[in-house]
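Review box. Two proteins, two foldings.
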Amino acid sequence: MSNRLLELRFAADPKRLKMVRDHVQQAASQVTLTKKLVSDLIIAVNEACMNIMEHAYKGDRSGEIVLEINDNGGEIEVVITDFAAAVDFEQIQPRDLDELRPGGLGTFFIKELMDECAYAHLQDERGHVLRMIKRLDDQHAES
């Protein structure tokens, strides 16, 4: 059974990210999760949204992002949708960790923090869906 914890539409503007992080925090508070898991969710969502803003929308702040967070009983599902021009998913790779420079680690953090991460194009080939899953087990439940 799925329980929608959050559905949020917002402009692809980096100034909206604090509001997004606050909403993710509030959504996570509806479920009994460890502080680390809440933090992991916030980081993964923030990085994914920033990547969409920078790479899919290429800084166009008029773009829209839709964020959904669901409690699927045993897992937290995050679905992020954008409506930008199609990108090649093969190009979505973290940079080499040996490179000493800022940036380029968003996809690395997402893959490290979440258990599953899958990209898909919307049916009309304009826009993308990122689905991230974090499985819950005894170590994620707050005692």
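Next protein.
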Amino acid sequence: MTKAFNVVGIGNAMVDILARCDDAFLTEAGIEKGIMQLIDMPRAVDLYSRIGPAQEVSGGSAANTIAVIAALGGATAYVGKVKDDQLGHIFAHDMRAQGAAYETTLAPKTAEDETGRCIVLVTPDGERSMNTYLGVTEFLTPDDIVPAQMADAEWIYLEGYRFDGPDSHAAFAKAITATRAAGGKVSLTLSDPFCISRHRDAFRAMIRDGVDLLFCNRAEALAMVQSDDFEACRTALAAEVEIFACTDSENGCYVHAGGQSWHVPADPVQIVDATGAGDAFAGAFLWGITHGADLPTAGRMANVAAGSVIQHIGPRPVADLTALFKEQGLG
């Protein structure tokens, strides 16, 4: 049975505010380098007033992944909560302009919280430190999940960051049930080591019972298994799912499935901004496996996409990924 969507993403919906800074600014502002930390509205306003020139784009980790799939020509939809305010309308318009279906009901103008935003501070080494005000995106509920849409997806893609919310676990469970009942498959990204520390047991239960494809990076794999042995962590996580794809920065990625494993090297590139690398990786990988690529080839596509996005400021590729794939003999 043909599905309407290759991938439906579920996660945060917010606007990314990207600015350059030096390490001294991070120290002065009390920001821990290289991680995502949750902040409240007053903190968001204060940081915004202190940063230099910024680029503002619609974002959210899973939204970036869906944008990559849509840019490659995949059929996509997105579920994430924004408010009926200026930033919310910008987000909705941008997702649709990317080619993704976006029909999540907007939080009303009277809602106390606003559309979320993430202030991403990029240091000269390309590392990004994310300061996230979730706003209304935190309040995604099972009512926002449309079973018919989940049933019409080959894959759904769940964002680990979205576990920070009172009803998100129930929303994910509803999406998984509807997808699997219709023969679809479930992918999950672990998102961040600190996110794992907050929700390890819930992640473990979901991975064991409802996830077919797991994405993470080296730090997240170590955090999930609570070990410093990277190979052992990969083996343990691969045993829990049908497909396991783990990135390792400049070393490329490791893909495990069916008792087999592949190390897929990455071409060296100049890092300008690491924001969105994992999102682009997941997007290209999912596009590959939904368009006939074998797993090592999907891994190569994913490395190319991640390598492209880190060569400029911003979380989404600006290069023509289809052309890059052809240059690499991947399509």
